[in-house]
Amino acid sequence: MTAVAPPRRRRRWIGWLIALVILVALGIAAWFIGDRIARDYAESVVRDQLLLAFPSSDPVVTIGPGSVLAQALAGSLDTIHVDLGPTDLGGVTGDVSLDAEGVPLDVTKPITTLAIDVAIGEAEAQQLISGLDGLENATLSLTGDEISLDSSFTVFTATIPLGISFTPAAADGAIELTPSAVSVNGAELSLSDLASGPFGGVVSAIVKPQTVCVAEYLPVVLRLTDAAVSDGRLLLSIDGSGVVLDGDELETLGTC
Description:
The protein is an alpha+beta fold.
């Protein structure tokens, strides 16, 4: 009698194993393909919303590393970087970028961290300082790390050129300008020599610490934290940590 061979179960298990590996591989591929689609979709949605808020901008949105699907399941995106490019901020145009961390999908919840950087050129910075005491008609230049203003004052019938350099900083949500150098009729003077010299009384109302309010350009929930000059531009750092994207505070501008 010819012996009957037992069923070849091992091959069947190998077949199941191969099938399982293929399914896992397909699942992984589907996850990554789906994640890429989810990333593209999320970046597109953020871009569309930014265009509604800033029609003059050209947003480039980048969601940080990690699976977007996994982050979405957790309820928030870890990091988002946005370059808005030249953007009209309600009368002043600057290059705007922002970095956000812990961005909830529920817009009624606060963003953990929001940092906004605005770079403003000389023409726009000129507009910002147009209300400074005694310097309404001064010509501005951004040199080194200072804001330089060329103006003049009058003594009797003589018009005397006056140049002032200010060091910018942020204080109480405004740009604080502190005089660092001064020239009268082309001659460099120390601040103490100017104060004690013949023109001290005339220019004391001009050569002094001054403040530039920027609140009228920003929602009340955003706060200026730093101001500096670099590469011929005025750089403003703004903090919006804790802001609620669906909150009324983003719809209300500050006042000066």
